[in-house]
Amino acid sequence: MMQEGLDDGPDFLSEEDRGPRAVNVDLQTDATLQVDISDALSERDKVKFTVHTKSTLPNFKQNEFSVVRQHEEFIWLHDSFVDNEEYAGYIIPPAPPRPDFDASREKLQKLGEGEGSMTKEEFTKMKQELEAEYLAIFKKTVAMHEVFLCRVAAHPILRKDINFHVFLEYNQDLSVRGKNKKEKLEDFFKNVVKSADGVLVAGVKDVDDFFEHEKTFLLEYHNRVKDASAKSDKMIRSHKNVSEDFNRIAATLYTLGTQDSTDVCKFFLKISELLEKTRKIEARVAADEDLKLADLLKYYLRESQAAKDLLYRRGRALVDYENANKALDKARSKSKDVLLAETSQQVCCQKFERISESAKQELIDFKTRRVAAFRKNLVELAELELKHAKGNLQLLQSCLGVLKGEL
Amino acid sequence: MAAEREPPPLGDAEQTDFRELEDGEDLFISTASTLESSPSSPEPASLHAEDISTSNGPKPAEISLEDDREDLFAEATEEVSLDSPEREPILSDEPSPAITPVTPTALVTPRIDPVMFERCKEELEEEANGDSFDIDISVSDPEKVGEGMNAYMAYKVTTKTSLSIFNKKEFSVKRRFSDFLGLHSKLASKYMHIGYIVPPAPEKSIVGMTKVKVGKEDPSSAEFVEKRRSALERYLERTVKHPTLLQDPDVQQFLESSELPRAVSTQALSGAGILRMVNKAADAVNKMTIKMNESDAWFEEKQQQFENLDQQLRKLHTSVETLVCHRKELSVNTAAFAKSAAMLGNSEDHTALSRALSQLAEVEEKIDQLHQEQAYADFYLFSELLSDYVRLITAVKGVFDQRMKTWQKWQDAQAMLQKKLEAEAKLQYANKPDKLQQAKDEIREEIEEWEGKVQQGETDFKQISKTIRKEVGRFEKERVKDFKAVIIKYLESLVQTQQQLIKYWEAFLPEAKAIA
Q: Which residue ranges are recorded for the region named Disordered (chain A) (predicted)?
């Protein structure tokens, strides 16, 4: 149900372009572990993803297998990474956003209610559009869940995580209950503390130039990506509005064309037909911009946040290390609990160094991934825009030719 | 049609039946030039001569075939019954031998006919009034005159023409908005009640004008002035396109004379304004109470068609207005995104990507300009045309209403005549010999008076029906032309936008590919 032919016009958008393949990250998929979402089912208020794994690793019982997972189970996996101290030095791939069909469902409902007030053609057209919209959102959510899994599978350390393997292989329900109230509250406080700390930690100037630069860069970058993401959403929504307007206009022109008994009725019918086709192209332009631009920005908003989180963790470790140093000095000066302080300092030092080392690599990888993803998406965006504009132009010109001949 | 060609056997009495004789010649502008010389109106006379017994509305057969032909070709699906197809061959002296004799079956032949006819009609019109459409009007240079609440915008109206009715070949005058309204008001009062579709003037806008008066130099008041200027230009163009109105001295005075008396009666709160409102209300009431026996299917059909057209055009207009609004929003949002992308490019520390993002921002900025221009086109081409036509159709409906009123007047006259006849009959049986003769004479006089009025009423009704048919034919033709032209222009604007888009993205693509 993911592959559905939406266009009855010329093929302006081949199916690969719309495929759920992870386009926002440039990942090296290697044969030892390949993960994808081969199918998805949308039920009442949940989506069931079929996670398909192909692996030559010895840890798994089979070489190829599939399980069904829901959104909550993805979140559980993500949170287990975040909570794992061992992974403090890595950028944890951002969790996929919750599938949100509410808006779309509401629109479908409203359409059903308003059925009586519009012509049959209008209703069918709008229904088709809303269904297409629903499908697009569906495809997106599948893509985002898939990207998460692929990122984990591509990460040299995370792919070995036991929870990940369970997630992939265990063919029963993981019984991951959503967080209850108490846990949600705990999370909330954690976040509050974190952001306060974040400010603290960010204030401390880093000795290491690399990290100092990354800190400044990420803080600014994250904010700007956020802004760009919001603005691109708004722009795309306007684009959709315009294309919807053409729909209504085409419908009225059609009625005019059928009612009119003069010569101009042919004009009306022709231009109504044209606007219908042109509108479909406009809608695809908006959809492609959404996919290539808006989604890209949203993804990097989340990833830059994850990178910031990494920096925060390192910062925390640094503070702990420095505190341990101070404690050691104090202990030495008082000649009391020196061994304890020494061990504690050692631990903190190791932790800090370990995190710094992996963080550096992670941040470099992040940049590489980011540049590659932007390049890919911007190129594809430009190519698609061109494709659609050319298609549109062709339609318009041929219609003009016909109409001018009729003058 | 033979009657048209020969000098009609008219007596003076019949000529005086037509009050609007000064326009009589105009009725024939669309026919061959040979008719220009005929000062009287043979057609109505022939109608009058033949039509004695109709109680209501001229039968289609008696209307000049000229009109029939217009109708036939304007609305190919119509069924106008032709009782006298034998008239056809006499049309041969018109420069359109290609037109096949029209029989009812020919009505449903494919579209070729209307196109052919249209071409021929233009040829006709051009022949008839050689240079009748050689007049070009433009409204420009809006200038604010005065200060504060007494300020107004003065527009320059330039006319370029080779028509003989004007003194010069090129001339311009300064006019203000109320002058235009005044012109329309005069034309409406002269021509609407006899069935002419007078193009409506642009609408007043208190809010818009106040902003301009108060002197706000913001883009929205500039937009308002431009919108008004364009509307005034279209109004004048439509008015002079109408062959009858072009001949009107008021129109000529408006275009030519440097000083024009202030049209105070156009102000909403003037005495005339209030009178207008009262009349409008009275009309509305009357309309509801007049129950006309429509024996002419053409009118009924036409009215229905115009109702439908009105409805759809209004709907379309609303949709297009929404489109304009959304397009403007799109432009604004694209600009915002462009800025945001530029900022993002600035903070990106990978040089090539940073550059590409800046380029993206530039592309989006250019695209935002494109959207703005397209919105402008959406509006001025599409939306304004639709609003013009919505108002025009109101004028058309008004003219139909006038016909109803004329019919009512005729009926009333008949009713009165009937009463007088009955009164006379009663007198016959009265037994007062001395008073009788005097009363009889009086009644006789009154009866003659009312007989005249009945005849007048009937003639008026037939006249207005005929005029309306012609006007509607003309209107439909204009409508077709207008819409076709606008649709084509609009498509061309869309084409241009796409071409520009292609240019911009083609320039960007290598930049994106260059990211290393």
A: 1-22
